[in-house]
Amino acid sequence: MQGVGFRPFVYTQASRLDLRGRVRNNPAGVLIEVEGNHGDIVQFVTDLKANAPPLSAIESVECNHYLQPADYADFVILESVHETANAGRDENFVPISADVATCDDCLRELFDPQDRRYQYPFINCTNCGPRFTIIEDIPYDRARTTMREFEMCPQCRAEYEDPTNRRFHAEPTACPACGPQLSLSVSPARSVIGVTDSALTVARSLLLSGKILAIKGIGGFHLACDVLNSDSVERLRQRKYREDKPFALMAASVEIIKEHCQVSREEEELLLCGRRPIVVLERKPDSAIPRMVAPGLNNLGFMLPYSPLHHLLLKDLDRPLVMTSGNVSDEPICYGDGQAVSRLGKIADYFLLHDRRIHMRTDDSVTRVQDGREIVVRRSRGYAPGPIRTRLRFETQVLACGAELKNTFCLTRDNYAFISHHIGDLENLETLRSFTEGIDHFKRLFHLHPEVIAYDLHPEYLSTKYALGINETSIKIPVQHHHAHIASCMADNEIDGEVIGVALDGLGFGTDGRLWGGEFFVADFVAAERIAHLAEVPMPGGAKAIREPWRMAAVYLQHSFGDEFVNLDLPFVKDLEQRGWPTLRSMIATKTNCPETSSMGRLFDAVSSLLGVRSFTNYEGQAAIELEAMADRDSADSYEFRIGSDGKLIEAADVVRAAVSDLLGGTAPSVVSARFHRSVARLIATIADQAREERKLNRVVLSGGVFQNILLLRQTLGLLRSSGFEVFTHARVPTNDGGISLGQASIANARIKSGRI
Ligand code: ZN
Ligand code: ZN
Ligand code: FE
To answer: What is the gyration radius of the CA atoms in the chain, in angstroms?
Structure first.
């Protein structure tokens, strides 16, 4: 890894043992020559592995014992021999570090009145600070980062050049005399209220008096306010166009988070780790945090401060702050000052800015713990561009373009998959620009020249159009969306060979031109055979049916009861007329704008609306997320899906009829929700049993957006494991469409290798 302080570490270790020699970076890693007595050298090698600096990751140490003695007089760090930009395609690369949260040494200095960086919001060192977000090009040195605009003062330069200093070659190093400065201004005009010290003091008191601040951070802007001030939270929601998406929170310490949430040991470790993700935690019922922070949910997303600015802002604050992405509705996070002022001007009362440019916009990552293990929900700041190491060997370099929602792309070489930071929903020009610029940036940073382009089958995705528009002579490989989901989970778990694949999802383009999403496969990396799927139903209005779950509820009711369902004595039925059921019915009858879908996500939507949970959504997956949140955790009953005589077609009508009869009989919707969840888990177990019998397969791979549902995931894992299956779920890449690019790349690679393109 570049810029993690490995050479100075080697220098210190060698000097301590009085060894002489040289250390330098070479394209394959680090090359060390040491001379001295045998025992010391053995000790040196042991120490290298045992005490390596926190950001380095030693993949292997190779020793060639007998070099001709060169009689070195000292131990010296040599400058890197940098490769030229036009270097050949087979050359090695050195990975680039993700951004790293402020380390303990820097924190001590930050709060030490004697230190020259006391309360300096941009303090960093070799072990911490911005990396990926400020790097413009390689090799990684200051001249190729956005820090090049700040000339180091003599003191900073002396530290930077001193191998024994902890800031030796810390490229973003800075101090109050020479580095970036804070400023606070009123929106949208940039009349500055204060700089650095006073900016911080005033910003804190503004927050505590109920104001909304736009704060420029590491990878983009946050919108911040006092979470215990419900007026502020309400105002923030309204100004962000009343969207219901949960707001992320930041607290000064784990102790404060524990006042509001259950925090397990694993969750605490994640909160404290250098990646500093948002960790989704279970809310305590008595927490004083207003419900509107995360409407309809029992979870809160918390993170700890990860930049010195955050530490200063939250110091001694007894309450968390809202720290949500600085964007408008569905747009990507703002990262340029001008852009932020124009887009966030109507939302924020004040702007806390600084003059260090952000080169790569990177959202906060989101993660959670299930079964004692981390499952990443959004892989971005702190994680990207760290490659995923896999056992697959990528013979040719692949660019996989991902899907549309929660897009990421992926580039491969050797045993690495470089999955991009979270790009967002590829639905507007701003996101498309981040996508294409991101691809170019990754190619340059990692010296990649993909010859194979993998993309989704959906002809309308912007990522597909991008792939098809590349007019280089590359091999282009379309990949079915749900096959990609399964392959992604296989690559995530480093398994190979045939598996039973369960892809439950919102929507993906099927090989028959229909919209799939409730799919069971026998699959490997090359091919996927669809062995069972949810029976298709119409999706009246197409995309509109996704935003209006009541449409899917009406479809499933009609499907299960015929047109007489309107006479059922259900609250849901009372609103039908006014919502426009007659129009919908004729659309279905004439098959007008009614694509057919086998999506499990849409069935969750239907049940959510039927139970009166949510009939109109304003963020993706909301209906299903709220359906999960309200489910009665103590209920153990379930309904039964009917599986066609060929074992292939799964009918939901019985489930819908049973749920309706429960509702009519007075069963609480929370119990019906729980029963529905368990029905889906049992369906998965049944199909898996069937496939095991017929195909002699015992490994089940679970993927697709529906498995973000932790209740369903837990029930499914329980049932499958108790019948002896080996079950694989996502951990390092998301189960949602953020993981698709890895699956596409793995499939393209396997097809090239096997010659089945
Ligand atoms: Zn540090
Ligand atoms: Zn300085
Ligand atoms: Fe998907």
So the answer is: 28
Average pLDDT of the segment spanning 584-594 = 97
pLDDT over threshold 50, residue 278: yes
Q: How far is the CA of 123 from the centre of ligand 1 (A)?
A: 7
- Tens digits of per-residue pLDDT, 735-744? 999 999 999 9
Q: What is the dotted CATH code of the domain comprising 6-77?
A: 3.30.70.100
How many percent of the chain have pLDDT more than 70?
Answer: 96
What single-letter DSSP state applies at residue 65?
Answer: -
**Residue 292 Cα, ligand 2 centroid: separation in angstroms?**
44
Cα(87) to ligand 3 centroid in Å equals 38
Q: How many angstroms separate the alpha carbon of residue 359 from the centre of ligand 1? A: 21
Q: What's the 9 CA to ligand 2 centre distance in angstroms?
A: 23
Structure tokens at 517: 């999403």
Q: Give distance in angstroms: CA of 419 to centre of ligand 1.
A: 26
Which DSSP string do the residues of 630-653 spell out, in sequence order? HS-TT-------EE-TTS-EEE-H
Cα 121 to ligand 2 centroid, rounded to whole Å: 13
User: In this structure, which ligand is nearest to the CA of 504?
Assistant: 3
What is the whole-number distance in angstroms between the Cα of residue 106 and the centre of ligand 1? 4
Distant-in-sequence, close-in-space partners of 121: CB < 8 Å, separation ≥ 6: 182, 196, 200, 307, 308, 309, 312, 354
pLDDT tier, 88 (very low <50, low <70, confident <90, very high otherwise): very low
**338 pLDDT tier (thresholds 50, 70, 90):** confident
Q: Report how far apart the first and last C-alpha atoms of the chain are (Å, whole number).
A: 35
Q: Which of 126, 116, 40 is nearest to 75 (CA)?
A: 40
The pLDDT value recorded for residue 56 is 80
- The fold of 533-728 is Nucleotidyltransferase; domain 5 (3.30.420)
Q: What is the DSSP letter of 706?
A: G
Nearest to 314, CA basis, from 204, 218, 228, 175: 204
Do residues 397 and 449 lie in contact, with contact meaning Cβ atoms separated by under 8 Å? yes
**158 CA distance to ligand 2 centroid (A)?**
9
As a whole number, mean pLDDT of residues 391-415 equals 94
Architecture of domain 387-493+736-754: 2-Layer Sandwich (3.30)
Task: Count CB neighbours of 611 within 10 A.
Answer: 26
Tokens 């990860």 locate to 306
> What mean pLDDT, rounded, does the chain reach?
93
pLDDT at 417: 95
Whole-angstrom distance, CA of residue 375 vs CA of residue 352? 33
The fold for domain 182-366 equals DHBP synthase (3.90.870)
- 182-366 matches 6-77 in CATH topology: no
Measured in angstroms, how far is the CA atom of residue 3 from the centroid of ligand 1?
12
pLDDT, tens only, 592-619: 999 999 999 999 999 999 999 999 999 9
Report the range of poorest mean pLDDT among 53-57, 169-173, 437-441: 53-57
Contacts of 483 (CB under 8 A, 6+ apart): 501, 503, 521, 523, 527, 528, 743, 747
From the CA of 649, how far away is ligand 3's center (Å)? Answer: 21
173 C-alpha vs ligand 1 centroid, how far in Å? 9
The better pLDDT of the pair 28, 458 is held by 458
Tell me the CA–centroid distance for residue 240 and ligand 1, in Å. Answer: 35
For the chain, the structural domain boundaries read: 6-77, 182-366, 387-493+736-754, 533-728
